[in-house]
């Protein structure tokens, strides 16, 4: 390394501490990248790769760079590509230092630690999540949005619970112990970790004593129990991992992380990964977009922080009857008061993202326009408080008391920052007139330089009586007074000689010297002073970060309430009755999203009755395309909406609070984990049967369809019996099936009721009525649906022929349906379903024992013999 230049030695020394990050090395007006970093960055950013100097082996050193003042979009592209970026700045003034300028990494940007607005989705949190479960049955999960300061932690039951939280939180980056690199959570679920950065944290960080010290030290408490983490061994470790990572990457500039929101998953209606996906709560199954999801329908928030708050409400519905009722009461008042609701939304529409503004201010990355946006937002609060003062709902009254107008913060920014400041902080034009006396004087000098000189010149002529006296300036001598030699006798005593010429003398006075010192450094001093004053104002605002954060949260809540009231009023939703009983009734319920997206077709509403006494399981039969899945999903969504404190799409609804919603819907595989469609179906069903309680709501759609008919019927029948007969998991259940045999369960099980989706047949066509009626269906009308899908006429006619044979029970002597068109009309050899647990000789004996030899034709006997030979 001794052969390298001092600058390259410095670069390599700093780079050694950040081997997994691309180092942005500040050189003058550019961030430069060298060696492998340059090669990688030039490819991702599509910028020119060049070289400079020579390495110790004589090879060129790859180099590329980006302008420091416009580096943000380049950093964003690197982060999107899954890279980390270490920002290395010059930390001393090149003008005042000798030798090479000292440089340090001031922060590391990773996917989970992005704070720049250009790189963030306004209505989505950008979470960094830590998970730890190496010690004990409970897993710790903590997650932080650095851009807003939202920091939460919980403990869950086992790895399954941890994955459920990860699916719900949807983090950009996950922290795991280094020991988990190869066989831990980072590899266990590639379907959920795909597209997320997995960062390994040194195992020693998870030491119990170190974790406790880290957490207590950051939040200034004597024990983690003071934060609500009493007894949380793994939860504290997860929180400590995030704090340790922040210290390493942000260099301690995380003053806005002042509060840890500790929660118990038992406080909320639990939704596993499959249920969130199947109900399309925040994204659609088809394309992962917001439009077409429940969030896409309900989100009429007018602030970014309100949009994020609504998403939290959807992901974490409540169990507390009291808290649900508070929300419903507030929404009811806003639904009834159209003018009040409109005024709230109009005022909130001018509020910027206070949470992220507060985050950038606390991280010292906010510019002057951010402060102006904060002021503009705070100036909206007084009118909002006036409106809230007129409300009666308890939650709205509470918001009125807790929203802080932060008047002095708004006044500080108003008096200190100009109304329309520039983006760049080091070019002046930021601080308002009248805020700082010295700055005003410097500006006056800068603006009025010529006028001052003219006035001073006239003053000196009058004082000396020398009419030819002149005040001039040059770069060598600065400002001076020039007097011809014929007038030297008239000069005052305070004139000090600066230069002698052939026909004149040049002088300086104390007043002119003072002005010279001011004016020559005025522009530079103005820029320095403005930047210093801006930093001072920003720091004074940052001190109020906790108040800003609390007010932002309350404004977000008001925004969500007004948005839900708006959609409830427009779509004719009703206020549900909520209690802790076991009854769920819905009158004329509708699927909120399907109804909204199909405005041209009248949505057919349906009723529901579920309880634990007589109507625990509703067995739903009917044809494909008739609406079974839509009906079941709408029930689940109505229950969820009610428990998040929202009005629901029905004419009336009574919801006994449920503890969990489970869904087993649709067909999907997981090839990355080696799981077939049927295996995924069975695993999801098993999870339901393990975790459901009598207070749960279960939605089962076509259990057993991924295997043979007899296997499928058997499994579906057994699952229904288990849900009915097993006391600990006797959940209220909607069970849709094409296995009409399951309708017979209503005869033997008194809490199972049969319903079907009504259809009407006309001219060999099926008309879907979309109405749920009592009784079981006897047909699935699959062939008619296949015709609607466009199958060839020949296929449809042949299918109808086969169906008639099956329904008439036309079987050969061997028990094989006469449906195949083999040679000379003979049926194909029967197929035996092989068991995973039976030996081949057992199957052979069983097959031979079932033969009716006396009834076989010679040809059939030869075919069977050939089959038996293949089984040996």
Automatic annotation (TrEMBL):
Binding site for ATP: 622-629
Domain DNA mismatch repair proteins mutS family, residue spans: 696-712
Keyword check for Nucleotide-binding: yes
One Pfam family it belongs to: MutS_V
Keywords noted in UniProt: ATP-binding, DNA damage, DNA repair, DNA-binding, Nucleotide-binding
Entry superkingdom: Bacteria
Transmembrane regions: none
The protein's role, per its UniProt record: This protein is involved in the repair of mismatches in DNA. It is possible that it carries out the mismatch recognition step. This protein has a weak ATPase activity.
Family from the record: Belongs to the DNA mismatch repair MutS family.
PANTHER family xref list: DNA MISMATCH REPAIR PROTEIN MSH1, MITOCHONDRIAL, DNA MISMATCH REPAIR PROTEIN MUTS FAMILY MEMBER
NCBIfam families registered for this protein in UniProt: mutS1 (TIGR01070), PRK05399.1 (NF003810)
Name by which UniProt lists this protein: DNA mismatch repair protein MutS
Source organism of this protein record: Geotalea uraniireducens
Protein's gene: mutS
């Amino acid at each position: 390394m001794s052969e390298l230049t001092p600058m390259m030695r410095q670069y390599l020394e700093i780079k050694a501490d950040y081997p997994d990050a691309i180092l942005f090395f500040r050189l003058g007006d550019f961030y430069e990248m060298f060696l492998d970093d340059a090669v990688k960055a030039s490819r991702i950013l599509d910028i020119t790769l060049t070289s400079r100097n020579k390495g110790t082996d004589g090879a060129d050193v790859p180099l590329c760079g980006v302008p420091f003042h416009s580096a943000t979009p380049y950093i964003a592209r690197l982060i999107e590509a899954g890279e980390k970026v270490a920002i290395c700045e010059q930390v001393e003034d090149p003008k005042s230092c000798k030798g090479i300028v000292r440089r340090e990494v001031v922060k590391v940007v990773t996917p989970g630690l992005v704070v720049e607005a250009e790189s963030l989705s306004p209505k989505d949190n950008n979470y960094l999540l830590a998970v730890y479960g190496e010690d004990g049955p409970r897993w710790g999960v903590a997650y932080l949005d650095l851009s807003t300061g939202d920091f939460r932690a919980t403990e869950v039951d086992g790895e399954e619970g941890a994955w459920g939280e990860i699916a719900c939180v949807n983090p950009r980056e996950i922290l795991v112990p280094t020991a988990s690199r190869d066989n831990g959570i980072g590899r266990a679920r590639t379907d959920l970790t795909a597209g997320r950065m997995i960062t390994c944290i040194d195992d020693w960080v998870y030491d119990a004593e170190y974790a406790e010290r880290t957490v207590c030290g950051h939040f200034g408490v004597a024990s983690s129990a003071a934060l609500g983490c009493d007894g949380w061994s793994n939860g504290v470790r997860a929180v400590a991992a995030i704090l340790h990572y922040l210290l390493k990457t942000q260099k301690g500039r995380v003053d806005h992380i002042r509060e840890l929101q500790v929660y118990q998953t038992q406080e909320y209606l639990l939704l596993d990964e499959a249920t969130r996906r199947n109900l399309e709560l925040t994204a659609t199954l088809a394309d992962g977009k917001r439009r077409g999801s429940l969030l896409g329908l309900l989100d009429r928030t007018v602030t970014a922080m309100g949009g994020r708050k609504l998403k939290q409400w959807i992901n974490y519905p409540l169990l507390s009857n009291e808290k649900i009722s508070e929300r419903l009461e507030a929404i009811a008042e806003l639904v009834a008061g159209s003018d009040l609701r409109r005024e709230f939304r109009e005022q909130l529409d001018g509020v910027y993202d206070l949470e992220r503004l507060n985050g950038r201010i606390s991280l010292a990355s906010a510019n002057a326009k951010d402060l102006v946006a904060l002021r503009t937002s705070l100036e909206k609060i007084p009118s909002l408080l006036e409106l809230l003062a007129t409300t009666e709902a308890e939650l709205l009254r509470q918001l009125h008391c807790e929203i802080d107008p932060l008047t002095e913060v708004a006044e500080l920014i108003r008096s200190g920052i100009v109304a329309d400041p520039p983006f760049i902080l080091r070019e002046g034009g930021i601080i308002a007139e009248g805020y700082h006396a010295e700055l005003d004087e410097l500006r006056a000098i800068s603006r009025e330089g010529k006028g001052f000189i003219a006035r001073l010149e006239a003053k000196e002529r009058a004082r000396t009586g020398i009419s030819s006296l002149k005040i001039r300036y040059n770069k060598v001598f600065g400002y001076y007074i020039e007097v011809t030699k014929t007038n030297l006798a008239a000069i005052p005593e305070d004139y000090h000689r600066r230069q002698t010429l052939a026909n004149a003398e040049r002088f300086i006075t104390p007043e002119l010297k003072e002005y010279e010192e001011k004016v020559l450094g005025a522009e530079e001093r103005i820029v320095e002073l403005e930047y210093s004053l801006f930093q001072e104002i920003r720091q004074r605002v940052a001190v109020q970060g906790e108040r800003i954060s609390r007010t932002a949260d309350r404004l977000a809540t008001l925004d969500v309430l007004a948005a839900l009231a708006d959609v409830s009023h427009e779509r004719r939703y009703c206020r549900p009755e909520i209690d802790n009983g076991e009854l769920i009734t819905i009158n004329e319920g509708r699927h909120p999203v399907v109804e909204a997206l199909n405005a041209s077709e009248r949505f057919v509403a349906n009723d529901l009755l579920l309880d634990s006494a007589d109507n625990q399981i509703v067995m739903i039969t009917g044809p494909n395309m008739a609406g079974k899945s839509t009906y079941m999903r709408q029930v689940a969504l109505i229950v969820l909406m009610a428990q998040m404190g929202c009005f629901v799409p029905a004419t009336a609804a009574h919801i006994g609070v449920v503890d969990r919603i489970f869904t087993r819907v649709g067909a999907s595989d997981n090839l990355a984990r080696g799981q077939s469609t049927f295996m995924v179906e069975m695993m999801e069903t098993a999870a339901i049967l393990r975790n459901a309680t009598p207070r749960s709501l279960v939605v089962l759609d076509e259990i057993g369809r991924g295997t043979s008919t007899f296997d499928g019927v058997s499994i579906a029948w057994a699952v229904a019996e288990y849900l009915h007969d097993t006391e600990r998991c006797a959940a209220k259940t909607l069970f849709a099936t094409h296995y009409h045999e399951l309708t017979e369960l209503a005869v033997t099980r008194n809490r199972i009721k049969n319903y079907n989706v009504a259809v009407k047949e006309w001219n060999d066509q099926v008309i879907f009525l979309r109405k749920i009626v009592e009784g079981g269906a006897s047909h699935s009308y699959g062939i008619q649906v296949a015709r609607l899908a466009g199958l060839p006429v020949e296929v449809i006619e042949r299918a109808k022929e086969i169906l008639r044979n099956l329904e008439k029970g036309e079987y050969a002597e061997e028990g094989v349906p006469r449906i195949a068109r083999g040679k000379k009309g003979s049926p194909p050899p029967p197929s035996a379903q092989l068991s995973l647990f039976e030996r081949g000789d057992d199957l052979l004996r069983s097959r031979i024992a079932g033969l009716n030899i006396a009834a076989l034709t010679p040809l059939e006997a030869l075919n069977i013999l050939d089959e038996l030979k293949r089984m040996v």
